[in-house]
Design a protein that fits this description.
heterotrimer; A alpha+beta; B alpha+beta; C alpha/beta; B: 16 helices; 16 strands; elongated; C: alpha/beta; three-stranded mixed beta sheet
Chain lengths: 95, 477, 483
């Protein structure tokens, strides 16, 4: 499997990941290498194997519906890049 | 050409839990921005989701109410996309294994019943809100709503008109409130709807290309938005054009739909099972518990009202449209001991008339069923007439007094004592010799004059039956 | 006293040989003296001295918890309230955590004194500690070599005796491999044994925190404090925590040791093979029985891992978006610019590679071929282990194909770096517990023996490791200049 610089740009956009133009080729090469490594899996027949999403053979534990959190806005917003009137600010969202 | 409309709805019902789906933060509406967003809701590094049991219970309850298959295991998945109101960069939702599978719901349109299929209902977390007021050209993000539990109810494309779509939406709206799993408040966004709309030539089996209408948040707008979108699609096709599959936003002010390009680009959501959460198991014990807890459903209640109270279908439908209204009516019947038709009449005509005018729900009624029963009892035992009752009812709206207290204070008690009525009538006969003459000479109409005069003289309190009887006797020809 | 183990220090503190304040000050002095290792990102001197003072008061009452007054340090992946938690990334260089990880909370409760935060590969992605935004960590055994990764700072600091014990995390070998390369003891517990709350996620279904210490005895003490159910982590297991120290001295007579033939094929170099063989012989002397086992799917662990871990991380790291915390680019022109530049500037190359691969593996049209396929392979690998562990008590093998390699030696070829985890990765896929213990030297560089146990058999692993450390002294070796 070989990825092109164009593929890399598409994936990078999906991941909203800035990549320097001059590095795109090297990412394409590295990613292609990773995909080649991964491609070894296709040699094995897994038709009758159930996917294993998790190492624990357990079911989800449930929490009672009781309020346990209090307002902690001040502490949380102290580490925020830009806030005003209790809101997180971002460049204009266009619907 | 004859066109057929095909509609499927995706309804998002906010579940009426105390806390978020994956955190212990409160879900109360209207709090100061970001004061109900804890570290989990904010998606801070290292924090983890833990599922609220009430959310699971509510979903199971809904599934049972629409006769759906409820999976033994359901799985939460991450739906990946970047948006500032989505703190983690993914929404925890369900994809391949939803909690509620195929079910159905019957709607009535033009007196005909139609079964609408429900494809699935799955649990997911709500996003926050973007506030578009201008913060020096920036947008403000409030994450209080982030993590509020949602049940997304997806219908089959079974509806063939905007009218059917609205009927289905109303039915789901009624049901989720019946089940106490959603407050149904559309202004606050607790109940929202997206519609998938397409058209096809009548008789064609394949579906046409559909568009998705986003966030149409009132019954009225759903109808308008679908109708305007159907017109738009037919116009395009008839002009030789093609429908683009896209998301469109309904603009109520302009009554038009327009493309939402921002939602269109690169929507490859890359769903995969959320490794922070394990499969949700619905045990037989939980099923039994929820089943036992299931209220009488609207359809069944309506039939029971028809059978037990001899109501007509329309009245029964109105009275069973909300659990609270139905409870009010049944309590009234029980407490007043009155004829069920009188009770249903008073509730649907007088009481709902007032509530609708004032925009109040039955829970907010200024007159409790007990107070109303007090009034109806007085009609039944002839203490007051139906006409006086309306006067008492008006007074009850304005005060907290009981019907009896008002009747007493305003001296509205019906005069049933025939002696007292006779005295009034004797005086009227004596004062109106001409009319007596006329009546005796055959003018039947004049009888009404005497009734009117008697009622007037008694300030409406004389029992009309008694008045009639005595007048007949006195004016015997 | 800096060469003493946690167990010895705890005794010394109780005997009044030294106070926690003296101990803390002495370790702090060593940390300052050896900044050339670059093992610490943050040193919390003032805070440590305050806590040490409280520890001394608690010790004076006579009923303080066992680890009271013992200095430790945390991998910078664990959130520490009020203290920078960078995860080795520029993205979180300004992130002061508003809460403690459960592990931090538990070790605080156990009485330990945290001296600071340890260097690591960026977001735990790496096997050499070279991907850290804060620079490479130097292996105290040979300063031009790597300490391993991703818990490289933890391993180097413990090996250099800058700290008697440290926390680490292990997603594909990140505790065991640096422990091996630095000649210390590292334990990756069963998935779900130690809470992941407040531990910044790399790959959620693989990550597990654990102790890094000089000895197995110390690992038992630290794990005792770290393990246990946490209601804040849905994947935390509700299961009693046994007394990990109680069985340390159990006899190994009749212990069945499985040696997977796939671990000892042509890929393993002769020096490493002979070191492992020597270690196995020690066990034979103690009465263990050696059984060859076969795990045919082991070779697919790296391919499966490099789909699953990147897929999970691609989503886990999406929250780093410059909106609520962390790095934000200057003057974003629009929303996409904010995301793309903040993330582009905040993440290093290796993190980007893995996000890209994960994004690709999950994208439309590739999900089944990559992600689902990898999950199926994961099941096959897990079944291999389950089968083998029905026959034997523990499985043994190497930790890493070679001792510490040179700084910069493998950075140009990421694939070669990935192969450094060939013996450790499968264990994370299966969710099993495993240890790395010092088992010799090759060219004066330490190497590790890996011991893999059944689910929740940490007590057995510790027993097996401790017995080896009773008859060998590899774990007592201290690198030159740090004795």
């Amino acid at each position: 499997m070989s990825l092109t610089a164009d593929d890399v740009n598409k994936i990078a956009y999906l991941a909203r990941l800035g990549i320097d133009t001059q590095d795109t080729e090297s990412y394409a090469k590295d990613l292609s290498g990773m995909l080649d490594l991964v491609a070894q899996m296709s040699n094995i027949n897994t038709d009758d194997v159930a996917p294993m999403a998790h190492p624990l053979d357990q079911v989800q534990r449930l929490r009672t519906d009781a309020v346990s959190e209090t307002n902690n806005r001040e502490a949380f917003q102290k580490i925020a890049p830009q806030v005003e009137a209790g809101l997180y600010l971002v460049p204009k969202v266009i619907e | 050409m004859q066109w057929e409309t095909v509609i499927g709805l995706e309804i998002h019902a906010q579940l009426a839990t105390k806390t978020k789906i994956f955190s212990g933060a409160a879900t109360a509406y209207g709090a100061e921005p970001n004061t109900q967003a804890c570290a989990v809701d904010l998606g801070l590094p290292g924090v983890l989701p833990v599922l609220n049991q009430e959310v699971v219970r509510m979903a199971v309850k809904f599934g049972m109410a629409i006769d759906a298959h409820i999976a033994d295991y359901s799985v939460f998945a991450r739906k990946n996309y970047f948006y500032p109101d989505l703190p983690k960069g993914y929404q925890i939702s369900q994809m391949d294994h939803p909690i509620v599978g195929i079910g159905h719901l019957d709607i009535e349109v033009d007196g005909k019943t139609k079964r609408i299929g429900v494809t699935r209902a799955h649990l997911e977390e709500d996003a926050g809100k973007s506030l578009h007021e201008d913060f020096h050209g920036l947008t403000g993000i409030d994450l209080n709503r982030a993590g509020t539990p949602l049940l997304e109810i997806v219908s089959e494309p079974d509806m063939r008109s905007a009218q059917e779509a609205v009927a289905y939406m109303r039915k789901i709206h009624e049901l989720v409130q019946y089940l106490d799993i959603c407050d149904g408040n559309m202004q606050e966004g607790s109940f929202r709807c997206d519609a998938n709309v397409s058209v096809r030539p009548k008789g064609q089996a394949e579906y046409g290309t559909r568009t998705e209408l986003k966030n149409i948040n009132s019954f009225k707008f759903v109808e308008k938005a679908i109708n305007i979108e159907v017109e738009r699609q037919i116009d395009i096709i008839e002009a030789g054009g093609k429908i683009t599959q896209e998301t469109r936003l309904y603009d109520a002010d302009k009554n038009e739909t327009r493309s939402m390009r921002s939602k269109e680009e690169a929507n490859d959501y890359r769903y995969f099972p959320d490794p922070d959460l394990l499969p949700v198991y619905i045990s037989d014990a939980l099923r039994a518990e929820v089943k036992a807890d299931l209220p009488e459903l609207p359809q069944i209640k309506k039939q029971r009202f028809i059978d037990t109270y001899q109501l007509d279908a329309e009245t029964a439908s109105t009275l069973s449209s909300s659990k609270e209204l139905a409870n009010y009516f049944e309590a009234l019947v029980k407490e007043s001991g009155c004829d069920t038709k009188i009770c249903s009449n008073w509730v649907t005509v007088e009481l709902l008339g007032v509530l609708n005018k004032q925009g109040l729900a039955i829970q907010q009624s200024p007159i409790s069923h007990t107070r109303l029963a007090g009034l109806l009892t007085r009609i039944a035992d002839n203490t007051i007439s139906g006409k006086i009752a309306k006067q008492v009812f008006a007074a009850m709206l304005a005060s907290d007094d009981s019907a009896d207290a008002i009747i007493e204070a305003q001296g509205l008690k019906q005069i049933t004592d025939s002696g007292a009525i006779e005295a009034i009538i004797d005086k009227i006969i004596a004062d109106n010799p001409n009319q007596v003459e006329q009546y005796l000479s055959g003018k039947d109409k004049v009888f009404g004059f005497f009734v009117g005069q008697t009622m007037k003289a008694s300030q409406g309190k004389a029992n009309p039956g008694e008045v009639n009887k005595i007048l007949q006797k006195k004016l015997k020809r | 006293m800096h060469t003493k183990t946690i167990a010895q220090l705890a005794k010394g503190l109780r005997a009044g040989d030294y106070s926690s304040q003296e101990l803390t000050a002495s370790y702090l002095a060593r940390i300052k003296q050896h900044t050339e290792l670059n093992s610490f990102i943050t040193v919390t001197e003032e805070q440590a001295l305050t806590v040490a003072k409280q520890a001394d008061m608690a010790l004076a009452t006579g009923n303080a918890p066992l680890l009271t007054g013992i200095p430790i340090a945390h991998k910078d992946i664990f959130c520490t309230q009020g203290v920078k938690t960078s995860c080795g990334s520029k993205m979180l260089d300004n992130f002061i955590a508003p809460y403690n990880a459960t592990v931090v909370e538990k070790l605080d409760t156990a009485g330990t004194v945290s001296l600071g935060k340890l260097n690591m590969d960026e977001f735990a992605m790496g096997s050499s500690n070279e991907t850290s935004f804060y620079g490479a960590v130097h292996n105290p055994w040979a300063s031009n070599t790597v300490p391993g990764g991703s818990s490289g700072g933890s391993a180097a600091a413990v090996a250099a005796r800058l700290i008697p014990g440290a926390t680490g995390t292990d997603t594909g070998g990140s505790i065991r491999q640096p422990a091996a390369l630095c000649g210390i003891t590292g334990l990756k517990p069963t998935y779900g044994r130690v809470s992941r709350f407040g531990m910044i996620a790399y790959a959620s279904s693989l990550d597990q925190g654990g102790p890094m210490t000089q000895t197995a005895e110390d690992a038992a003490l630290m794990l005792q404090a770290m393990a246990g159910f946490d209601a804040q982590d849905s994947t935390s297991v509700e299961r009693e925590v046994p007394d990990y120290s109680a069985g340390l001295n159990n006899s190994l007579q009749g212990l069945k040791i499985g040696l997977p033939k796939e671990f000892f094929d042509d890929g393993l170099n002769n020096d490493m093979a002979s070191c492992i063989e020597t270690a196995i012989n020690e066990y034979k002397k103690m009465g263990a029985e050696i059984i060859e086992v076969s795990m045919p799917n082991l070779k697919l662990a790296i391919p499966a891992y490099y789909v699953i871990a990147p897929a999970e991380c691609s989503a886990n790291l999406s929250r780093m978006d410059g909106v609520r915390f962390g790095h934000r680019c200057t003057d974003p022109v629009d929303l996409n610019d904010l995301y793309i530049r903040s993330r582009g500037e905040g993440f290093g190359t290796e993190v980007k590679r893995r996000i890209l691969v994960g994004t690709y593996a999950l994208s439309e049209g590739y999900y089944d071929a990559y992600y689902i396929k990898a999950q199926k392979i994961r099941r096959l690998i897990s079944d291999d282990f389950k089968r083998a562990l029905q026959e034997v008590d523990v499985i043994m093998g190497p930790v890493s194909p070679s001792p510490a390699f040179g700084i910069g030696e493998k950075t140009s070829d990421p694939i070669e770096m990935y192969l450094a985890d060939i013996y450790t990765i499968a264990i994370n896929l299966a969710g099993l517990p495993a240890m790395s213990i010092p088992a010799g030297f090759i060219d004066n560089k330490p190497i590790g023996l890996q011991i893999i146990g059944n689910y929740f058999a940490e007590d057995k692993l510790l027993n097996v490791a401790h017995q080896y450390q009773q008859v060998t002294d590899w774990h007592q070796q201290t690198p030159q200049g740090f004795a």
